[in-house]
Structure formats: C-alpha cells, structure tokens
C-alpha cells in the first residue's frame, strides 16, 4: 500500500556517507554513554511536574510522598523503550529522529504519525517549560524585591482552580500565586484579566534570538546540564534539614491509583532518555555498551529524582505542592527565601537553555517533513540575511506564546506525555515487525529478548497513558485525527516518495 511506502535504508546511508568527509570514530564506552544519558534525562521535568504529581487536583489523585514509587515505575517503562529505540537508531545510524527511522523502516504513514507526535513533544512541551519558567522567574523577582503582578504571571484557569482549592481548604491562600492573581486581577467590562505575560515574554525573546541566528552550543548545553545538577544537589543539601518525617505519613494517601497517575505525569521528567540511542555508531561495543548506558543513566537519574522527591515531600505537607515551581516554593514555605532564590535563579537559567533547544528543534521536524513533501515548501524557506528557518521559527514561537498565555501546566504536560508515549509504542511495535520483516539486516545493536522487551515497552507505555484523564485522550485523539486529515488531504499526494515510486 502507498501509505506504507518506505525510504531505502541503503540509499539513506549512502546519502549520509556522501555528505560527510569522515566516518564517526568508535570512541564511546559505557561511562561516556551514561554521562550522555544523564545530560539528556535531567531536564526541566523535575522542576515542573513533580508538584502536580505529588499534590494532584480535582480530577487527578496525588501520589503524595509515594511519588518516589512513581519515579521507579516510569524508569522501568523508559528502560524497555530505550532498548527498542537503540535498535531503531542503529538500523539507520545517521543524524535524524524517530521520524527518519520510521520512514525508512515502517513506512510513510507511521512516520507521519510520529512526526505529528514530535510536534507535541517539542512545541507543546515548550509551553510547559515556558509556564514553569514564568513561575520560577516570578519567585526570583520577589526575592529581589521586584514585584510583578500575579495576574501577569499565571493563566486564568489556574487562578480559578486555586480559588476552588482554597474554598475547599486544600490550599494555603497565603502561599498561592494563582490565588493571589484571582484576588487582585483587574477587569475590563467585567471580564477578568489574567494571563501569563512572563511566559509570552520569554518565548518571544527565544524566538527572536533563533531568527537572528543564535545556534545550539554543545559547550553551553553542558554548562546548563551542570547548573541543573548543581541546583538539584543544592536542593537536597539545603532542604534535608527542613525535613519532618511526619510529612511522609500517610505515605500513599490515594493508594496505588495516586502512584499510577503520578507516574503518568512525571514521565515528562524522563523525556530525552532516547538520545542515548543515537550514539550507536560511535560505541566501541554497541551490544555491550548501549544497554549499560541506557539502564545505567536511568538508574542514576532515578536515584537523584527519588532523593529530591523524598526531601521535597518531607519539607512541606504534600497537599501544598501543586504549583509550577515546587522546588523554590518548598523553601519559601519553610521561610528560607535565600535558598528559594538560589533554586529559582538556577531553574530560570537552565530552563532558558531548554527553551532554546526545544524551539531550535521544532523547525527541524518541519524541515524534514517538508523536504519529503509531506508539508508545504513554505516550511523550508530560510531568511535571506540570517540563513535561519525564520518562518517556521516565528510560526512555532507565536503558537507556543499564545498557548503559554492561557494554558494550565498540568494539561499541557499530560498532552506532551501522551503524544510521546504513543510514539514510543510505535517504536516498540516497529522492532517486533522489523525482526520478522528484515531479520538479516545488520544491526549495530539488537534489543535483547525480542519480542518480550518490546511487548513490555508497549504495555508499560499504554499503562502510563491509561493513567491520564479522559480529556487528555480526547485532545490527543483530535490532534491525531487532524494530522491524518492533513496527511490524506495533502501529504499523501505531494509526497516525494510517491512521485519517485508511482
């Protein structure tokens, strides 16, 4: 069928070889891969989603102190998917993403679906980062004596939810930025004016920088990773003295359903682990080193996450952590404003780098899909002066900024998670299919215990997806349906592969 037409793997590799003067050297060992994995995994998720996962809300039971178990559950699912992703990448060991790999192995329709999902991971994920950046920046400014109105720092729905929680007695009104926005917002013709101006501001700045030509820097990225690790270790060191063991009781206030829902939310803290698999071509011994790198980095990051979660839930009652800046807020609630400011400053710097990387990556997805004819040529245009994909960069920035102004961070994280988890389901399924479809094709890494590991990956992802509320499934279904309509209305007919293979 035409919808399952594939790119030629051999031709892809030949094109990649022709575009590079030298082959990548096999220099990476297990320690290098573990370091790479830690850098990829430690992102902004631990700064943003852990609060909601712990506290929950009206439709999401909070995990409470048992969020530590949620991290373990998510890490296991990521391990299965990471091993499958490693084989996927080794089949097509060139620069690319799951979109490139699936186009070459599973066919155009699956590639389109994964590419459509990657838009959620990059663009919608960036919305979550921008919202959390705004919360930490507001906390930082307050610590410096600079007052920014609360109604310019949160979205309307969060303010309404905060008012409901205060009325129900589940939120301390003196320690809630959204509730402050609800109390003090201005109105025009009776319409409340509450929107996240700070999130819009940072997205606009990042978009402008990318249009004029600021590029990713490996050295700068490494510095940002170091800052994130330093902040987490500082949080553990400075926060442990405020821990009250009674805050860990009850340990599992909402039973295992809270742990399950918490795992579905904090999956956001693990997005990026699949980056390890793209280094298959540079491994000294891929069969040995890839699983060590994937599992080793997941274990180390999970240990760090669990310790952070233990300190966080021990510092303040878990019900008070449902905010976008939980690590800084915990210090603020125990009266350690200096520590709150240090955490907020580190988070602002680190998240700015993440915003830059995500905003930089989204046009690449559009670029790849447009080059294949699945999106209009409009998406491949570059600025005549700056030589940057300015149209896709500005378009992405406008969409991210608009959503950031009004969106609730919990719903955004859930949409990001369900899209990414669905893409991983397809990747795991693809390994099973390819083992039977092309069993003799050379692989630098082979997923162990096929089909058991891919099936466990599929089951784990579906299990985490099932922990998300029905409204998230509905939104994802609408997004997927819109993507399929666009594909069959445009991409299917304009595909360059279709033109080459009538």
Gross CATH architecture: Up-down Bundle
Number of domains: 1
Strand order of the largest sheet: 1-2
The CATH class label is Mainly Alpha
Helical element count?
Answer: 20
Strand tally: 2
Reported for the largest beta sheet, the result is: 2 strands, antiparallel
Instruction: Tell me, briefly, the overall form.
Output: globular
Please describe what this structure looks like.
The protein is mainly alpha-helical. The protein has a single domain, classed as Up-down Bundle (Amino acid/polyamine transporter I). It is 67% helix and 1% strand. Strands 1-2 form a two-stranded antiparallel sheet. Strand 1 and strand 2 form a beta hairpin. Helix 14 runs antiparallel to helix 15. The protein is globular, with a radius of gyration of 23 Å. The model has no long low-confidence stretch (mean pLDDT 84).
How would you describe this structure in keywords?
globular, Amino acid/polyamine transporter I, 1% strand, two-stranded antiparallel ribbon
Produce the secondary structure layout.
Elements: H1 9-18, H2 30-41, H3 45-48, H4 50-55, H5 67-91, H6 98-105, H7 108-143, H8 156-168, H9 177-184, E1 187-188, E2 191-192, H10 197-211, H11 218-239, H12 255-266, H13 286-315, H14 326-333, H15 337-371, H16 390-406, H17 409-437, H18 452-466, H19 470-494, H20 496-500
Antiparallel strand pairs: 1-2
């Amino acid at each position: 069928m035409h919808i399952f037409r594939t790119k030629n793997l051999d031709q892809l590799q030949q094109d990649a070889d022709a575009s590079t003067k030298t082959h990548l050297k096999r220099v990476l060992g297990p320690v290098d891969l573990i370091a790479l994995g830690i850098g990829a995994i430690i992102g902004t998720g631990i700064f943003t989603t852990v609060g909601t996962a712990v506290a929950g809300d009206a439709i999401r039971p909070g995990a409470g102190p048992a969020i530590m178990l949620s991290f373990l559950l998510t890490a296991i699912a990521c391990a299965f998917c990471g091993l499958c992703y490693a084989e996927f990448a080794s089949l097509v060991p060139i620069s690319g993403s799951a979109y490139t790999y699936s186009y070459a192995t599973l066919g155009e329709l699956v590639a389109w679906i994964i590419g459509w999902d990657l838009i959620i991971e990059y663009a919608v994920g960036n919305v979550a980062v921008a919202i959390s950046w705004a919360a930490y920046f507001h906390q930082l400014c307050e610590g410096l004596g600079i007052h920014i109105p609360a109604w310019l720092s949160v979205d309307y729905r969060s303010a309404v939810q905060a008012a409901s929680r205060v009325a129900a007695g589940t939120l301390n009104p003196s320690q809630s930025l959204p509730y402050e926005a609800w109390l003090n917002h201005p109105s025009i013709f009776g319409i409340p004016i509450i929107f996240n101006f700070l999130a819009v501001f940072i997205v606009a700045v990042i978009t402008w920088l990318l249009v004029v030509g600021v590029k990713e820097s490996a050295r700068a990225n490494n510095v940002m990773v170091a800052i994130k690790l330093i902040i987490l270790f500082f949080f553990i060191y400075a926060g442990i003295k405020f821990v009250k063991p009674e805050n860990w009781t009850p340990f599992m206030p909402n039973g295992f359903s809270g742990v399950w829902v918490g795992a579905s939310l904090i999956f956001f803290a693990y997005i990026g682990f699949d980056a390890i698999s793209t280094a298959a071509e540079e491994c000294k011994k891929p069969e040995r080193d890839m699983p060590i790198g994937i599992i080793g980095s997941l274990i180390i990051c999970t240990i760090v996450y669990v310790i952070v979660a233990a300190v966080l839930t021990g510092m303040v009652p878990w019900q008070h952590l449902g905010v976008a800046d939980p690590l800084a807020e915990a210090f603020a609630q125990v009266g350690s404003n200096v520590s709150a400011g240090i955490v907020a400053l580190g988070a602002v710097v680190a998240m700015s780098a993440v915003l830059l990387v995500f905003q930089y990556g989204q046009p690449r997805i559009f670029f790849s899909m447009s080059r294949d004819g699945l999106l209009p040529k409009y998406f491949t245009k570059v600025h005549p002066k700056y030589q940057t994909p300015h149209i896709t960069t500005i378009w992405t920035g406008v969409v991210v900024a608009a959503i950031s102004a009004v969106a609730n961070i919990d719903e955004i994280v859930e949409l990001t998670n369900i899209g990414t988890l669905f893409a991983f389901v397809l990747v795991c399924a693809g390994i099973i299919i390819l083992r039977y479809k092309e069993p003799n094709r050379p692989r630098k890494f082979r997923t162990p215990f096929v089909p058991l590991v891919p099936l466990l990956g599929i089951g784990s992802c579906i299990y985490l997806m099932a922990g998300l509320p029905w409204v998230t499934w509905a939104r994802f279904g609408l997004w997927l349906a819109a993507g399929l309509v666009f594909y069959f209305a445009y991409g299917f007919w304009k595909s360059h592969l279709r033109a080459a293979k009538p």
